Amino acid sequence: MFTKKIVVIGGGPAGMTAAIRASQLGQDVTLIEKNSVLGRKLLLSGKGRCNLTNACDLDSFLGRFSKNGQFLRDAFKVFSNLDLIDFFQKRGLKLKTERDQRVFPVTDKADSVLQVLKKELHKNRVEIVYNSRIKDILVDGRKVKGVTFGENKFIAADRIILASGGVSYSFTGSGGDGLEIAKRLGHNIVSLRPGLIPLEVKQPYPEFLEGLALGGIRLKFSDGRRQIFSDRGELLFTKSGISGPLVLSLSGKAVDWLAENKNLYVEIDLQPDLSKEELNIRLLRESRSSPKKSIKNMLKNFLPQRLANLFMDIVRIPTDKNVSQITQKERKEIISLLKGLRLDIARPRPTEEAMITRGGISLKDINPRTMESRLVKNLYFAGEMIDVDADTGGFNLQAAFSTGYLAGQSAASTFKQINTN
Ligand SMILES: Cc1cc2nc3c(=O)[nH]c(=O)nc-3n(C[C@H](O)[C@H](O)[C@H](O)COP(=O)(O)OP(=O)(O)OC[C@H]3O[C@@H](n4cnc5c(N)ncnc54)[C@H](O)[C@@H]3O)c2cc1C
How far is CA 419 from the centre of its chain? Predict the structure, then answer.
């Protein structure tokens, strides 16, 4: 087998995995990273605990990607979530599975994951060039020739793997350079949008509710006339709007809707297990059993204090009014709020704050069996820069690991094929 030069651009999970796999297969691999350290975004993942994958089966796994999940089938077959778990456990990293099959290191530290990857890079003699921002990929007759970086520096390469990430959390290094380079080389870039992002609302209330988390609620998104999408889960109020696992999961749909339509509203059903009629009976029962109780105190049986205060303001009920004095109209309004506190969605938070970039290199330009570009020979893509994105739960990191592994393996294996032919 001839040893050839493979250059990997980007030292995130995708680039590190690509470099490890290509070097395991005996190639001469150089990893080029613009920061002075590897894996800055990886260290932030899972609130610093790194939810590195999810233990669910392949079909459920693919189902958690927004629409392009099937593209990853080959990559997941070559390097699945079980392979990833095995990879880390064989190298001494103990893992644990938490709720919804989310996998974390037992240490609860993302750094433990990074240390295993760094050790493996070292063991396989991957050369790492730090503080070097790739400016361009040079191509000779639709075939890669090498990369340029720094002040007129050039590294020749037989194969290049571009794994420079998306455009969010740019302070970690992912500023979109690789997407610009891919575009210059003729690849289509599907519009870049924020994914897993909090939403801003027009009402001022979230400011007073900031930090309040509500579990088991239902969110119903609508255009004001008909429901567009809905789901149950946990909501968190932020200074300017709403976030939390449920909002992050639904945010992609909200962003797409807002891009093409003017109006988007969300109704928070705070009592999804009770109908309006059942709530009416419960409120009436409360008024009969404790007629002297203030309405505000009675509402605390249904709501956290801060929301109870907000309801009193919206319905304009004096704070000292007691339950026996509640009018039918007030009771009806309270029930309407409990079943649908409405907020007008203004916009998503900026893409910079997104946990994942949606859009990226068009899947039409990438061969899913190898991750090679269909336009430039010997150029491979991996990780977040590809037009795939998923829900929270470890799916995005697994996509980076799997596409990185496949890109590394394909880039390295083509040499073998050339040699054996
Ligand atoms: C706050 C936060 C928490 C997250 N938590 C989770 C989680 O728990 N589970 C999960 O599955 N996903 C999580 N994600 C998503 C996950 O971190 C990303 O999907 C993943 O890091 C993408 O890996 P990547 O290697 O493609 O890109 P990146 O991790 O962004 O790495 C790209 C690398 O390329 C380098 N680079 C960029 N341009 C150049 C250049 N011109 N020259 C040289 N190097 C360059 C960058 O410096 C960077 O090191 C989280 C994201 C965020 C922001």
Answer: 40
Kindly report the number of other CB atoms within 10 A of residue 309's CB atom.
Answer: 17
Query: Is 393 close to ligand 1, i.e. is its CB under 6 Å away?
Result: no
Q: Under 8 Å CB-to-CB from 211, ≥6 apart: which residues? A: 236, 237
d(CA 224, CA 221): 9
Domain co-membership, 231 together with 327: yes
405 and 310 both lie in a single domain:
no
Looking at the DSSP assignment, which residues form a beta bridge with residue 243? 236
- Are 226 and 320 within one domain? yes
For 418, what's the count of Cα atoms within 13 Å in the CB-facing half-sphere?
12
Q: What percent of the chain has pLDDT over 90?
A: 83
Are residues 35 and 97 located together in one domain of the fold? yes
Closest ligand 1 atom to the C-alpha of 13?
25
pLDDT, tens only, 206-240: 778 999 999 999 999 999 899 999 999 999 999 99
Q: What is the CATH number of the domain that holds 179?
A: 3.50.50.60
Interval between CA 9 and ligand 1 midpoint (Å): 12
Q: Is the CB of 147 under 6 A from ligand 1?
A: no
Name the band, by pLDDT with cuts 50, 70 and 90, for residue 419: very low
137 C-beta closer than 6 A to ligand 1: no
Cβ-in-10-Å burial (0-12, 13-18, 19+) of 264 comes to buried
Q: How many domains does the chain have?
A: 2
Question: Are residues 108 and 49 part of one domain?
Answer: yes
Residues 33 and 177 in one domain: yes
In terms of domains, do 213 and 120 share one? no
Residue range(s) defining the domain that contains residue 105: 5-194+356-420
Ligand 1 pocket residue status of 51, Cβ below 6 Å: yes
| Nearest Cα to Cα of residue 351 among 343, 360, 342 | 360
Q: Whose CA is nearest to atom 13 of ligand 1?
A: 45
State whether the beta carbon of 4 lies less than 6 angstroms from ligand 1: no
Ligand 1 atom 8: the closest Cα is on which residue? 46
User: Which of 348, 374, 392 finishes a domain?
Assistant: 348
Crossing angle of helices 13-24 and 110-123, rounded to 10°: 30
For ligand 1, whether the C-beta of 206 sits within 6 Å is no
pLDDT at 409: 98
What is the chain's Cα-based Rg? Answer: 26
CA of 57 to the centre of ligand 1 (A): 24
